[in-house]
């Protein structure tokens, strides 16, 4: 029970990496706020499966700053503080890099808003609550696309590079009471990227040094390590990709 009495907030918490992280946080004793946008049923079903605790499902759209502020107000009223923020929500759509016209302004804007402004809005809104505890941590779920330039589309790569840089900047100004890190996976066995099923993931895995498909639980464990063990780390990225960046 490494996180007994801690309050954790997870965006994108109803599915994929977010849901796996929610389970591990709750198993270690945290009260978890499962933030969802369209996955209310998933969020409530997930909470019903967690160990008994003061868990909560909270609707918010990270693209809507007013929605984020409202959710932060509700979290403050309920708990009075936050100790952990995991920014797992994000958005992408597959577009071949060479098809520049296919990455139109509307799609590019939606990716940047969801993957850059969204996490920043969450951090901006939650910082007052995170400062209350005096030993808090923010973990941004990024991607090796940020530094390899490979990924579902060029805009997605740019958005994750921005998230990595934002992690650096925030770590400088939020210490010593708040640590800020990012976790950088590659392809993970979730439905995040449309059309990428198990056969594609296994083919990708064959090209990596560890030759294994990365599961959402693998990334959740990395997030947990940032929270519970990497106590003197801030402003850095932790790569968890079975070594795929070496083959990019």
Write up what this structure looks like.
It contains 8 helices and 7 strands, in the order E-H-E-H-E-H-E-H-E-H-H-E-H-H-E. It has 248 residues and is of the alpha/beta class. The protein has a 7-stranded parallel beta sheet, with helices on both faces. Helix 1 (16-27) packs across helix 8 (216-228) and helix 3 (65-79) packs parallel to helix 4 (105-133). The protein has helices spanning 16-27, 40-49, 65-79, 105-133, 145-148, 154-174, 198-206, 216-228; strands at residues 7-11, 31-36, 56-59, 84-87, 136-141, 178-184, 237-239. It is globular and about 50 Å long. Strand 1 (7-11), helix 1 (16-27) and strand 2 form a beta-alpha-beta unit. It has a single domain (7-247), classed as NAD(P)-binding Rossmann-like Domain (Rossmann fold). The longest helix is centred in the middle third of the chain and has 29 residues, at 105-133. The termini are far apart.
Q: How much of the polypeptide forms β-strand, as a percent range?
A: 5-15%
SSE order, one letter for each helix or strand:
EHEHEHEHEHHEHHE
Kindly report the name of the CATH homologous superfamily.
NAD(P)-binding Rossmann-like Domain
Overall domain count: 1
Total number of beta strands = 7
Low-confidence parts: none
Arrangement of strands in the largest sheet: 3-2-1-4-5-6-7
């Amino acid at each position: 029970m490494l996180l007994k009495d801690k309050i954790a907030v997870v965006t994108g918490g109803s599915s994929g990496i977010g849901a796996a992280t929610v389970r591990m946080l709750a198993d270690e004793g945290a009260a978890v706020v499962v933030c969802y946008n369209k996955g209310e049923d998933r969020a409530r079903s997930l909470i019903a499966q967690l160990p008994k605790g003061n868990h909560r499902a909270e609707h918010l759209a990270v693209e809507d700053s007013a929605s984020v502020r409202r959710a932060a107000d509700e979290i403050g009223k309920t708990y009075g503080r936050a100790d952990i923020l995991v920014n797992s929500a994000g958005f992408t759509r597959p577009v071949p890099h060479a098809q520049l016209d296919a990455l139109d302004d509307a799609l590019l804007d939606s990716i940047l808003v969801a993957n850059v402004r969204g996490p920043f809005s969450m951090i901006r809104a939650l910082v007052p609550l995170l400062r209350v505890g005096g030993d808090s941590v923010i973990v941004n779920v990024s991607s090796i696309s940020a530094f390899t330039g490979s990924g579902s589309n060029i805009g997605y790569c740019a958005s994750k590079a921005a998230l990595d840089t934002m992690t650096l900047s925030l770590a400088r100004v939020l210490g010593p009471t708040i640590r800020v890190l990012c976790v950088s996976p590659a392809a993970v066995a979730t439905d995040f990227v449309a059309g990428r099923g198990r056969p594609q993931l296994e083919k990708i895995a064959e090209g990596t040094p560890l030759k294994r498909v990365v599961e959402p639980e693998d990334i959740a464990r990395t997030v947990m390590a940032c929270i519970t063990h990497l106590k003197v780390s801030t402003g850095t990225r932790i790569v968890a990709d079975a070594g795929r960046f070496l083959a990019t």
